[in-house]
Structure formats: C-alpha cells, structure tokens
Amino acid sequence: MRNSPVRIVALVIASLFTWSCGYQLGANKPAEMTGVKSIYIEIPKNFTQYPRLEAKLTNNLTDALIQDTTYRLGSKSQADAILRSSIREVDYTRIRAAVTDGLRPEELQMNVSVNWQVIENSSGKALKSGKAREDTRFFLTDQRLTTARDNAFPDALSRVSRKVVSQISNFF
Length: 172
Description:
It contains 3 helices and 6 strands. By secondary structure, the protein is of the alpha/beta class. A hairpin with a 7-residue loop joins strand 4 and strand 5. The two termini are 46 Å apart. The mean pLDDT is 86.
C-alpha cells in the first residue's frame, strides 16, 4: 500500500482538526495566575480554639503545593505571589450514635473551613481568593473524645490543603 497524496492530505486535515480542539499538555493555570511561577506560603491565622493548627496547615499546604508541581515554593523576598490563609472554623457533626446510648456518639465528622487569598508580591494586588471546606470522619473507640479529635486533624487538614492548592492551580 502506497501513501497517496489524498491520504496524506486527509491525515494533515484530521490532525489540524484535533490539534485545534483546545487540549494542551501540562498545567492549565487560571488567567489571573499566569505570571506566577513561585508562591510563598505565610503561616495562617487561627481563629479556632485548637492550638497549633496553623503550623500543621502550613506544612500540609507546603506538601500539597510541592506535590501539585504547578508552582514552585519560594522565599518571601523572591516569590511571585504570597498565599495567605486563615482557619475559620472547625465543627463536628454526629454521624452515628451508640446503640445503647443515643446521646453518646460513635462516629463523628470533622469539618475544617479555610479562607485563602493569593496576593501578588510586587504590587500587593489580590490575584485570587476563595474558601475551602473539607471533612473527615472518625470513630470513637474509647472514651477519649479529645484524643480522637486530635488524631483526625491531620487527615482533615491534608484534604483542605489539597483543595486550596487545586483551586489555585486549576483553571476550572
């Protein structure tokens, strides 16, 4: 079988149609974040009653940003933008109660709410902002509610951090 000129032309036309469909490989940043290549993560403000959540959220945001690879992590003086965030709320919902005692929870859902804002480092202009809310479920196997809550924080903060970075990195 020889390649006829008609087949070659048809192949070129077909590739042009598929090339112009709008698909592209690699990161697809939001329009307002096109000039940003590196981000500095400020230590968040903690408006809850739980101590040391700001350090844990900073670590999780850093990990999520590094794993996403859309932006580099930068120092405050050299980064293109600054990520400011605040932990606004941590609340609980009872999912399941004990069979013998309807007031004693056996499974709870923790909700963590974070407000965030990306600010251009050179001008101080807000590029993008939003809110992220994520939850995690945990079981109460013993009578130590405080211990169970403390053990649920890493998962909830990891989930909310990935959501924040996803909102910063993705076009949609």
